[in-house]
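Checked the freezer inventory, then went back to the computational side. Two predictions to log before the end of the day. The first one is the construct we discussed on Monday; recording sequence and tokens without edits.
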Amino acid sequence: MNDSQHKPQNFLHRSAGVDQLDPALSRPKYVGRPVERLEDPRLLTGVGKFTADMTFPKMLHAVFVRSSHAHAQILQIDCAEALNLSGVIAVYTAKDFADFKPISAQSKMQNYQETLQPILAGNKVRYVGEPIAVIVAKNRYIAEDASELIKIDYDPLPPLVDPESAADDESPRLHEHLKSNVIVERVFKTGDPETIKAQAAKCVSGRFRFRRKSPVAMEPRACLAEFNEGQDILTLFCTTQIPGMLRDKMSSQLNLTGHQIRVVAPDVGGGFGGKGSLYVEDIAVAAIARNLKRPIKWVADRLEDLLSTSQAFDEIIEAELAFDNKGNFLALMATVLGDVGAYSIYPWTAALEPVQVASFLPGPYKIPHYQGKISAISTCKPPTGPYRGVGRPAAVFVLERLVDKAAATLCMDPKKIREQNFVKAEDAPFRIGSGIIWDHSSFSECLSTACEAAGYETLCNKRDEARKDGKLFGVGIASYAELTGIGSQISVAPGMPINTGTETANIQIDATGAITATFAIASHGQGLETTLAQIVADEMGVSPSDVRVRHGDTDDTPHGTGTYASRSAVIGGGAAINASKALMVKVRTVAASIFDVKEEDIVVESGKIFVPNTNNIITYPDLADAVYANMRALPQEKRIPLISSETYDPYVGTTTGSTHVAFVEVDPETYSIKVLNYLVAEDCGKLINPLIVDGQVHGGVAQGIGAALFEEMIYDGQGQLLTASLASYLLPTAAEIPCIDVCHLETKIPKNPGGFRGMGEGGTIGAPGAIANAVSDALSPLGVEVSELPITSDRIFKMLENAENRLALEKENGSRP
């Protein structure tokens, strides 16, 4: 039987005009085009599926009772009155979780002390907001009422609020089994920075402080657990960025095999890193659902979210930059003291933020000698965890302030001293003092593009003219480099026992010809359903609307970690390209058999599979019918499943470079700050979707402005949060965010499937440094400069007051005989 006998009558569609198709011209390319987001119709019309929207029959509601003390022994918990309230089903305390292992974030890093976080605090609380009990009731109103009836007797202990005091050997230990409150120590060193600094012609230094903040996602954390008793399967719907990590860890915590637990991230309303860790609430809700054999739902309110969601960077950094008389950087030294809160968060560990600060501190500059020392201090505050930028906002703030100070010392233009010291394209790959490697990027091009587009010289002239009239205008530049799409060689936090460097894409054509691409990533607002569909569409010759992207469900993939560290487009996109190419080999093999031609003769464009200059043309449904249904269309050996699974590992990662330029005005009477102009020039490689890229940049800059000027988690001496609502925790609004201009560079990356670089965190990384430099420039006529963020009107007033007091004291001392 020959192949022609396998082809059914009328199987080949004959279409006039196919022989005129020019493959080079007919194929619509979607990568690089501003395709409207495929997610938006459901999200904008209110039919998205968020965790809080979900209900199940017989569902119960959980409310957590939280500590009102920052540090105290728990003497007694009386739940009797709450249990007697009508509608209350159960109350759980630490004794009900006695068989559960405490959460530990392990690390192979030297000088690392592991903390143990209980599911519910039983003997001791270590921060205000730590969960002590869980009330389960018929509805949330009853559960909230019952929470007021729980009586807890505390024996207060001295609160550890100031990290420098907590680091002292004489300070009480927050975790009794540890030798000190310093739970992480590490040193990065290249060359001999001490000697070079001593020999250098010039040196600038400073003590910098970046205050703690909250992610404040639009959607607070929530989870809903359902236990299927018949199948012995536990499903957790959760506002998480890392469903794969949650599934893997909860499997061991709940003593379940992998196929007994499923974690699903439905639509998620923002994360910014705050939803990128494991929380005790996730385990407690899942365990209670299994215990009661009923669905259990918990949704945090804004107070709970501010009290208990992991918080962002809280560092004191002392740094020195040595350079010669021509402005060439010679050595950089820094000590980083990070306030990491009460526990080392899983899986990232307490090393994440301070180690990243020291790792990225040398930035995009050639600094031959470097030393960075870090200490992570445990205090009576919620744990710090990943936050958009992780370590780099603080690192860029400190280094870019030092660069401006160096320029001022030499009377050099801030733009010139940066250009002079940049890592150049011909230097790539370049290893900075901490060991991070920059691949080919465009630091100089970003700087020149940003300054030209912003009208840098014009802004400087405008500033100088304004000063003649007593007005305070300032221009600020911040340049940075970030490592994105981190591969298997470099863990996000050193020594973590998890693989965060690979991603797998599964792509299939089903029996109807529909294309589905499945990933382990979990989108929380980045538009990944659109960008990944664009990538697959280009490879498979269809439109993005023809591709369904599935993500955020652990049942779909055997392994995957999630979405964080600007990895999804780089690593997920790389996997999508590899899997699509592998699937297209099968498509061409099948089509070649149908047409009785060579595989290289097959062209796939606009959803059509054809041989140019012939009338042979089929569609994907025709192809699928031939493989799966029509047993006469192909010989048996040619009926290959139209599915592929490929993994991508960038090994090291990709380098993204950028320069931000800010122009600000400081009111000389109220010291209020207004950002007048803002421009970003960034190189994220090949743009997948310019609309989405611009949106990410704009959102990141808005958050960076918030960190620079407004947002601060303020704790009093007793460890009580004073900014526990959005009335006191100030977020920037549309009125405070200027029009943001963005310039894109698209430098090619060798050995990268799509040429993509990550860019989701860049706005948050560059904005604090640019704003700090601009405000410092504006305040320079007054003799003060920014060394602490956020910079508020009150802080400026105190800076000026201190400066006046110093001048008065110097005059007094100078007048004495």
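The second is the one RB wanted added to the comparison set:
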Amino acid sequence: MFDKIEELERRYQEIEAFLSDPAVISNQTEFRKLSREHSDLTNLVTAFRRYRKVTDEISDNRELLSEPDMKEMAEEELKSLGTEKDQLVADIQLLLLPKDPNDNKSVILEIRAGTGGDESALFAGDLFRMYSRFAETNRWKVETISASESERGGFKEIIASVEGEGVFAKLKFESGTHRVQRVPETEAQGRIHTSACTVAIMAEAEDVDIDIRPDDLKIDVYRSSGAGGQHVNTTDSAVRITHLPTGTVVACQEERSQIKNRAKAMKVLKTRIMDKIIQDQNAKLAADRKQQVGSGDRSERIRTYNFPQGRMTDHRIGLTLYRLDSIMAGDINEITDSLRAFYQMEALKAQSEGN
């Protein structure tokens, strides 16, 4: 493990030299690429350098154990340094885990009402507001791509882009079935109803990720319908794109401009196709594991929101929080951080079993 880190440290020093080279600084593309690589290695190199310093201090203190006047102080130091060394080893192991190449990407968020009719659509709206407020606290940009509103409010389906640094890393474990238990406003008897929505978080595909041939596309334009101002039903601004080889269909009518709707629809189309490729790869990997935990399957029930009890439970990691109001207001950092930590530990276990 440490041979690998020493090699990465040499690369880190090499990059530092490049970043001070005027020729590299003048080449913005190369400079940004190297800066990103430098940033990715910083935490690992910093932890490794501290680990080396701690091991040196442990050696020094062990030598002091033979001196009566220094023995007690050395023992105290060794205890503290030993704890720090163990923590540094754990941190380094996590930092050495293979990086998800999509972690820094923006995402396409899709929320669809499921079982539960109007109540499910209302909950889809609640989930969208929850993610939108979480995005605000992270200074991410949320832009609706398409929305199908229900008669009583909420959404039958809503698709949006969430743009910013590290969006996928934070939200990637949100995919799955979200279940809600509450008393609908229309329920006279006060009975609790259960309904559900599905959430899909897809890393936004870039042009370098996937190449779609124009011949594989069927593009239809039509007049927009629903809310949207004077342009509705007056121009053919809505766009529907069908990817013929996969049968994937995406429609967008949120913008007044046909060109903008087409660009948004293409973004979603590429992302869905790329996501399908990734899902298939993950399914194959999961089939090879001894134990599959939290596969990310879109049909998997991942979470329950119980309004009468003010409770949220994530079934994958057994996390229960009794502060549903703040969660629905977008305070989901504890959830996303807990999920990330859990899956990192699962990856560490899988790595140690493979060695």
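For RB: The domain at 107-207+294-354 is CATH 3.30.70.1660 (Alpha-Beta Plaits). Residues 227-233, 288-297 have pLDDT under 50 and may be disordered. Let me know if you want it refolded.
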